[in-house]
Q: What sequence folds into this?
């Protein structure tokens, strides 16, 4: 329960008023009124106003928060308010978790936000206290202490206004305007450019998982994605014709390279004046329905690029513009002609649309729905930041129509809602498709995000990054900090987007450049352990067969890497169920599971994938120099040479080498084997890992014979989850689970009775348990292991 410490002392120090309302404490001091409102178990909202008008708070409709106040909620922490209106949070033992410092309201006296304030709140952190989250930051850091920057969405960096601490608390700053974060002298301040009030949510748990669960309860839980999305996706900037796209599909099937997704990038709509027409207007795509059907015949799926902007000749633009639902600032592409550099005497006229308006979102879906009717499987929502060329501060002063969560209409400055742009853009498509189709799960790949976007299931990638080892190294903490903002679905352009610096022997020579081959292979190994495994980029062709042919070390390594992804699909899909059902996470910073080991607190090079797999990506070149050489093609590289790589095994567990089975004690660094074929990978002692063989696409569901590997050392459980793979029947209970339980003392694995069912479910199957063949028909089976 919440507690107000020593209220009589507060009254004695100049408190103007104190009132109680259903678990809400409200008081005013020096014209600032503070309220602490109970929202959910271990979640409170802190609100500060200067006018004392309760309607100021009531008028605020959160774009992120979907939870409502709960007077009966309980908390494992206490809070108090001092005579200056500063809130302090403590655990049940009286230890300070977080303490407010100064709060300021600076009146805005001109412009569209006149009458509002610039709002700022400080928080006292402990010396050396790491914090995590904030967003997708290209700074290479795990702990985000010491950041001083303006948080505003763009191509390479995005922000959620959420952070959490190793002490077990989290803070969501519920403001959508550009916000400055400063961290100096152990005081972290959040300073938003527009606000009526200071408004944030404090949440507390025993660990990072509890904090993530609180944040998802507050802002939305994660829906299941289709099974096929956990396979391998191939993309390129760009396939210039339907024949080019289908050539890749057929080639992958011919070579037996597993894959599930082919992604069509921009300009299938033709020229820039027709930008994002959401129609196949390019003459090189003359029979799009035939192309889509052929992709499906090859047991693959098609995702397609759509943007948050439209060219002036498109039907959506012509419908949106007269209604004032188009922004007036410069975006990409800048020229209407295809030449590079842009020919600016022929401006494109492309403009960003207003996703804050439900009318605009409806118009967007009206035209996109025609592509949905063609049975396209996924939406690659590019530039959801959105792109903003020749940025001027005055661009943020535009006033836009906006639909509030309760359906009422208002107007707002772009500045006041700027950072929520991706949330509204992505949610518009997700909500629209869910409203008309329950047979196909919504799949969205997007470039930007904000708090609450996890409820759309959208998978965010880290922007148009450079192809370099330095850029690769930054992707690990980027993905981990993103996950720690309660958004589990994240990925990167495998190999980096801009790769032209490796084309030292002309166009598309990089796939045969040993330096890029090593970088790409290591990046692909990392991709095996991301929620989405997607190869994409500009300047070169990324299809695996451009890197060699069967029998050549690099090609064989790449094909083997993709096969490894498919081997792990039962584990990955079961983890996705844990994400949806129990607020789990795919990519887990080591501090999430081993906070007692201080060596994990700032580890930005390793992570857990699910609960069992420790991934140590090779982030430094072992076969070639890191500095790009014009003489790279003259290098004599022995790809078969054995290499070593330093890894750290967290304390608190023993670890099995995934490739050799050798057991190691945690809490040590060691020189691990790191051949070209794989990165060092370890399984936590006390784990159960399901794997399958022979799959070339996810919907094969070749799970009739499944290997169950028990890694002893501790008692363990694992729940195998299965369903139809691509509809929302799981929400109706149509799925099955089988729980495997390992008893360390008795050396016995219990395969539990199957729970639930779904159409097409396997009634019987074979499990290979540590080499023992076990027939399973849905009833409990016990397996004694030596």
A:
């Amino acid at each position: 329960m919440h507690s107000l410490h020593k209220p009589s002392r507060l009254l004695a120090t100049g408190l103007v008023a104190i009132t109680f309302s259903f678990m809400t404490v409200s008081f005013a001091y020096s014209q600032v009124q503070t309220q602490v409102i109970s929202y959910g178990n271990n979640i409170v909202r802190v609100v500060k106003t200067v006018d004392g008008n309760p309607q100021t708070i009531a008028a605020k409709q959160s774009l992120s928060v979907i939870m409502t106040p709960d007077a009966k909620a309980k908390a494992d922490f206490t809070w108090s308010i001092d005579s200056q209106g500063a809130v302090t949070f403590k655990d049940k033992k009286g230890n300070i978790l977080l303490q407010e410092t100064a709060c300021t309201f600076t009146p805005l006296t001109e412009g569209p936000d006149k009458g509002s304030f610039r709002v700022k709140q400080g928080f006292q952190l402990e010396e050396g206290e790491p914090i995590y989250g904030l967003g997708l930051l290209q700074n290479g850091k795990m702990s985000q202490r010491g950041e001083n920057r303006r948080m505003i969405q763009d191509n390479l960096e995005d922000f959620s206004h959420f952070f959490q601490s190793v002490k077990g608390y989290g803070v969501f700053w519920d403001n959508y305007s550009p916000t400055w974060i400063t961290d100096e002298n152990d005081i972290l301040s959040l300073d938003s450019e527009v606000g009526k009030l200071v408004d944030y949510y404090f949440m507390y748990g025993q660990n990072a998982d509890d904090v993530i669960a609180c944040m998802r309860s507050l802002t939305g839980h994660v829906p299941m994605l289709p099974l096929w999305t956990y396979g391998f996706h191939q993309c390129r900037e760009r396939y210039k014709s339907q024949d080019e796209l289908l050539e890749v599909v057929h080639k992958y099937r011919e070579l037996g390279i597993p894959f599930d997704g082919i992604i069509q990038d921009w300009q299938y709509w033709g020229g820039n004046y027709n930008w994002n027409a959401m129609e196949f207007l390019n003459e090189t795509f003359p029979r799009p329905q035939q192309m889509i059907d052929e992709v499906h015949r090859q047991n693959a799926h098609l995702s397609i690029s759509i943007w948050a902007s439209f060219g002036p000749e498109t039907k959506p633009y012509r419908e949106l513009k007269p209604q004032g639902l188009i922004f007036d600032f410069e975006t990409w592409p800048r020229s209407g002609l295809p030449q590079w550099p842009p020919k600016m005497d022929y401006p494109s006229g492309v403009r960003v649309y207003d996703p804050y308006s439900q009318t605009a979102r409806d118009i967007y879906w009206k035209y996109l729905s025609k592509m949905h009717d063609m049975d396209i499987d996924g939406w690659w929502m590019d530039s959801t930041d959105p792109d903003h060329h020749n940025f001027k501060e005055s661009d943020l002063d535009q006033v836009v129509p906006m639909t509030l969560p309760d359906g009422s209409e208002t107007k707002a400055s772009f500045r006041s809602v700027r950072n929520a742009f991706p949330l509204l853009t992505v949610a518009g498509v997700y909500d629209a498709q869910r409203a008309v189709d329950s047979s196909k799960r919504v799949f969205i790949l997007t470039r930007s995000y904000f708090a609450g976007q996890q409820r759309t299931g959208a998978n965010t990638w880290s922007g148009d990054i450079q192809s370099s080892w330095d850029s690769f190294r930054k992707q690990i903490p980027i993905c981990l900090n993103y996950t720690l903002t309660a958004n589990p679905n994240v990925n990167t352009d495998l190999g980096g987007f801009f790769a032209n610096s490796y084309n030292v022997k002309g166009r598309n020579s990089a796939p045969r450049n040993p330096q890029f081959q090593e970088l790409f292979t290591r990046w692909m190994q990392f991709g095996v352990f991301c929620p989405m495994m997607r190869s994409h980029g500009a300047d070169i062709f990324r299809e695996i067969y451009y890197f060699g042919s069967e029998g050549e070390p690099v090609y064989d390594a790449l094909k083997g890497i993709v096969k490894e992804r498919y081997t792990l699909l039962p584990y990955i899909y079961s983890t996705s169920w844990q994400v949806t059902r129990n607020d789990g996470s795919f990519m887990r910073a080591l501090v999430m599971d081993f906070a007692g080991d201080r060596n994990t607190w700032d580890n930005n090079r390793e992570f857990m994938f699910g609960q069992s797999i420790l991934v140590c990506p090779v982030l430094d070149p072992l076969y070639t120099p890191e500095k790009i050489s014009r003489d790279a093609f003259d290098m004599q590289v022995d790809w078969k040479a054995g290499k070593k790589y330093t890894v750290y095994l967290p304390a608190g567990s023993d670890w099995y080498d995934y490739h050799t089975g050798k057991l190691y004690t945690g809490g040590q660094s060691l020189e691990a084997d790191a051949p070209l074929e794989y990165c060092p990978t370890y399984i936590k002692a006390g784990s159960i890992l399901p794997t399958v063989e022979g799959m070339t696409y996810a919907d094969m569901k070749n799970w009739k014979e499944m290997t169950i590997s028990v890694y002893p050392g501790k008692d363990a459980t694992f729940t195998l989850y299965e369903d139809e793979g691509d509809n929302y029947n799981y929400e109706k209970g149509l799925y099955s689970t089988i729980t495997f339980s390992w008893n360390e003392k008795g050396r016995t694995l219990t395969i539990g009775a199957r729970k639930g069912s779904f159409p097409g479910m396997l009634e019987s199957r074979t499990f290979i348990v540590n080499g023992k063949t076990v027939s399973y028909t849905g009833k409990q089976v016990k397996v004694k292991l030596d």
Summary: Residues 1-29 have pLDDT under 50 and may be disordered. The radius of gyration is 27 Å. The first strand starts at residue 17 and ends at 21. Residues 356 and 589 are 34 Å apart (CA to CA).
